[in-house]
Amino acid sequence: MDTISMLAELRAERDRLMEAILVLERLAAGGQRRRGRPPKWLVASAPSVAGEGGTRKRRRFSAGTRAKMAAAQKKRWAARKKEAA
Asked: Residue 67 pLDDT more than 90?
């Protein structure tokens, strides 16, 4: 292994350690445990479960499925309106 690649690995490890230290300092400054969703700075620095990106791809409905859903909702609204009258 040459010296340049060793330096690159050491710098990458240093960056990971500095980020971990920063997260721990922020957590220690908070004091108590928080309820609910973690703050964005904590999520952005934490390793993601889904992968490196950390974002999920959104599942899209087809045009036909959206039309069926719209028709069903209109049917529910009509039934509710009929009940109210």
From this structure: yes
